[in-house]
Write a structure and sequence with these properties.
Layout: H1 8-17, E1 23-27, H2 34-48, E2 53-58, H3 61-79, E3 87-90, E4 95-98, E5 103-108, H4 112-119, E6 125-128, H5 136-143, E7 156-161, H6 169-174, E8 192-196, H7 210-215, H8 220-226, E9 256-264, E10 277-284, E11 289-294, H9 301-314, E12 319-323, H10 329-338, E13 344-347, H11 353-365, E14 369-371, H12 376-384, H13 395-410
Helix pairs in contact: 2-3, 9-10, 11-13
Length: 417
């Protein structure tokens, strides 16, 4: 379209994608133009080959459909193609169909029936959006469907992410060229390529002050990840290590006997405020524990209160437990005003974060806690938590600690003062 231009970094990424490698990952900071570019690539490939099929996969279907189907793709079609393309969008199925019969599927791997549907099709392009949220086995399974014969296109697997830690499979595969399962060299390393693309590369398309104020004002590790696009080293002395989380991750759940939502409320809701930690955990009939959701957010008490209530009913939870040191009885009053029937147990932080977190970390050390999926922001807080290392409150981690403490203490796994 006349008037549209890619940024120089996007131009370099396009050259990389058009090369011989089958698997390409764009990694870097927040709002660097990665997703916009890769959506452009999918539309262009769909137009080049009539009847071709392409997928955009994220962990949750509702997330990919709201963030890409309702936001990024319409912007791509308007900005890059000037709204000149004819297409239909089946919102219930998450499928965009162009006039040449090519399709883009927007889907998640969070539901067995949905995963079965995607695995029943063949694709010539699969784009894993925010791939750090996916476990490697799910990615490998989805890649078995990268098998559509659709000349002149060659099958491509595209990935993007804000880089997590260096022990994450994205770093192992695309940077070290190692198989995450056994750390042996990949059998076809030349088929993998990666490129960093950062917010500064996309500065002309960002709101004034976003880089200088929003991103530059983050704590150091988050700044390195979301502004500088760096894969992070593990924090020395951290209470949690990645090997305490990743090997025990699960894609399905046993029968659950109890579900608890932990809440660590922020005392204010401004732009510089802490987030309110909202983390759901469950005790399984197998005697082990499962992290089900991280819905933490920055917002007013009414906003986060409504989110807690929504998650409570979504998961059919048994109880909400929340810290009341700062907000006192107002937190319980707020939640009961929103829903008088909600079961709430207040907790007070009578001891330091480290002492509260140590028994929970011990459960992880014993392999008794399983993350039902990947929770990048929560896990980054956990992996960063070390004595004397905290300049900002780890709100998500605190909420997780409260939820697991409630579950484990009820089951007499430990007693926490």
């Amino acid at each position: 379209m006349a008037g549209f231009t890619y940024t120089p970094a996007q131009e370099r990424a396009l050259q990389l994608i058009s090369g011989k490698q089958k698997n390409i990952m764009l990694f870097g900071g927040s709002r660097s133009g990665k997703t916009f570019l890769l959506c452009c690539v999918l539309v262009i490939r769909a137009l080049r080959s009539p009847g071709s099929r392409h997928a955009i996969i994220r962990r949750y279907a509702n997330t990919v459909r709201s963030s890409i189907g309702a936001d990024t793709l319409p912007k791509v079609l308007a900005t890059r193609f000037g709204n000149a393309l004819e297409y239909e969008y089946n919102k219930s199925e998450g499928v965009i169909t162009f006039a040449n019969s090519s399709q883009i599927w927007l889907t998640g791997l969070d539901d067995n029936a949905r995963a079965d549907k995607i695995l029943g099709k063949e694709f010539v392009t699969i784009y894993f959006n925010e791939c750090s949220e996916l476990d490697y086995s799910s990615v490998q399974t989805a890649l078995t469907r990268l098998a559509q014969h659709s000349p002149p296109l060659k099958p491509k697997a595209l990935f993007d992410c804000n880089p997590p830690g260096k022990k994450h499979w994205t770093y192992r595969v695309f940077i070290e060229k190692l198989d995450p399962a056994d750390t042996l060299p990949l059998h076809d390393p030349d088929n993998y390529a990666a490129m960093r693309i950062n917010p500064l590369d996309n500065a002309g398309n960002l709101p004034e002050g976003y880089i200088e104020n929003t991103l530059a004002g983050l704590p150091r590790r988050q700044r390195e990840r979301f502004l500088e696009g760096k894969f992070l080293d593990e924090v020395e002395g951290a209470l949690w290590k990645r090997e305490m989380i990743a090997p025990f991750r699960v894609s399905s759940l046993p029968e659950l006997q109890r579900v608890v939502i932990g809440v660590d409320p922020a005392v204010s809701s401004g732009d510089e405020s802490d987030s309110t930690g909202i983390v759901a955990a469950a005790a399984g009939m197998d005697g082990e524990y499962y992290i089900l959701a991280d819905r933490s957010m920055r917002g007013t008490p009414l906003e986060w209160g409504k989110r807690v209530i929504s998650l409570y009913y979504e998961l059919d939870a048994d109880r909400v437990t929340g810290e009341v040191n700062n907000g006192g009885d107002l937190i319980e009053a707020l939640l009961h005003k929103l829903d008088p029937h909600l079961s709430f147990r207040p907790v007070r932080a009578s001891r330091g974060k480290l002492i509260r977190a140590e028994p929970v970390a011990a459960l992880y050390e014993r392999g008794l806690v399983h993350h039902a999926g990947v929770f990048p922001l929560l896990e980054e807080e956990m992996l960063s938590f070390a004595p004397g290392n905290q300049k900002k409150s780890p709100d998500r981690m605190d909420a997780l600690v409260w939820a697991l403490t409630e579950l484990a203490d009820n089951g007499k796994k430990f007693i926490l003062a």
